[in-house]
Structure prediction request, 603 residues.
Amino acid sequence: MKNYDILIIGGGPAGISSALAAAKLNLKVALFEEKEILGGQLVKQTHKFFGSKDESAGTRGIYIAQKLINEVNNKDKIDVFLNSMVLGYYEDGVVTALVKEKMEKFKPKKIIIATGAFEKSLPFENNDLPGVFGAGAVQTLMNVYGILPGKEILMIGSGNIGLIVSYQLAQVGVKVKGIVEISEKIGGYLVHASKVRRLGIPIYTKHTIVKALGDRKVKGAIIENVETKEKKEISCDVICLATGLMPLSDILNQINCKMKYIPELGGYVPVRDENMKTTVENVFVAGDSSGIEEATAAMLEGELAGLYASYEITNTFDKRINEIKEHLKELRKTSSKVVSGLKKLNLYKDFIVDSQKDLGKLHRTGVPEKEMIENIIPKDSNRFAIMECFQNIPCNPCVASCPTNAISMDSLNGIPKLDEKKCIGCGNCVAVCPGLAIFVVDKKKESVLLPYEFLPVPEKGEMVEIMDREGNFLEKNIVLNVRKMKDKTNLIEVKVSKENINNARHIRVVI
Amino acid sequence: MDEEKIIVCRCEDITLKEIRDLIHEGYTTVEEIKRVSRAGMGPCQGKTCGPIIAREISKITGKPIEEVYKPSNRPPFGGLFFKEIVGESNEE
Ligand code: SF4
Ligand code: SF4
Prediction:
């Protein structure tokens, strides 16, 4: 039997953050991970994260994972058990786990459950055909092992996962035939939606998949308009399901933590208090297993659980505990779904969420209305940044990136505003924006500076095809300048004729 | 819609038709359906099919889903060899 202060189940963003928090206080930590590497879903996230500047916003998930893993490896207070599955928890506080093909017993003072989530499946005809994948599997194949799942793909679900994975598939050269969304509005962040629309990928709102076509493998799909019942056939060799996650709660169920079914949080979640304590003595929870949210929230919850569990052992209260709670509140200020779920757990009782505006066409198609764009185009300036970011989301790296303080925002969840007199058109904001929603327009020079995350990167002087917000071809023109960036969001300045200057939003290299 | 071609439990290959037939026969909890059909007894231990079966029961019987879907779990959570518990001294 091995003794530890804190035993953490799950080596994803929440679990790692818990481990680091407890190790900071000099406690002895065991961190269990079923897979061969730490990092959880972060190791597949090649996109930049939202959030506030002080929580690694604008950094790609894979780099956040690397940083966290390095920190864990530098702490000798943390014993990491990889390829090790926790098997059970017993009333006397003993945890059993399979370590190196042997069942071992552990006796921790506290345990933190950070087991993450499980992808929801979807019943439709022929849903067992080879070629039907979960979005997690597609990301693992593509981003961890470097294997293409197929050539042409249909994405089901327009939440952030569906949108982001579609974008990543397009980056590696897979043709994304469309994104199917059952409700009338796009589920994920609209800047992500605009990003895929620019590539010419359609989003079918109010549609659902009814049938996979093919005999021995997927050859296509039939989707149906949920209102008109009109059907449409789409050919593809992969159907990717991004229809939501549910908290992974096996261990919590087994321990007999009080559970509650809360659809807003993804399914069954443990009843917990504001310090992530479950109803069972010495058992804490963090991350998606306590309710589905973004990775940033998981890291904060993990740290909170780690610090609070440590506090119960050491009796020294870390100020950071209260800071994290405030951060989480700020992060959730516009997440009406998560907050209404938390209210059902008797948390966030008096918390009021900022109401989310219906953004009309943008919410239904991912492409903003003409007037929305016209409203933000500066009238008296010849070179300016234009921020096509209209939705309240917890994101602000653009503000800090500006050397002349031309961008302002009233809170983390606010909409960025440009002071056109201050903007010098340097393009710093274009490079940091995780939504790839900022462009610099130069009316005199007749050019647009845009973010570009595809290969090959064009050369200065090369002719490229220029596309609008829906991926429609506008014109061919010449690349004026290329700024290769370390974080791989390269900046391309391209010449654009006057009539297209307000619509040029993407380029394609002609091979 | 061909219910026989919709797989609900992919570990044990159980279709939507089989599940709906069982509910109509009077098996109206996830646990009962698991015992008569083996849905949920495969490697994923009902994580994929459990919520779908619960939704079907809820739709047909009118009971709210939180009353229907109450997963219970017992250790061990994964497959385990005897040798991993007791150790192997002699292969022969
Ligand atoms: S282009 Fe430069 S000056 Fe203008 S808003 Fe962006 S960062 Fe600020
Ligand atoms: S414009 Fe600013 S707030 Fe909007 S996505 Fe980009 S960095 Fe975030």
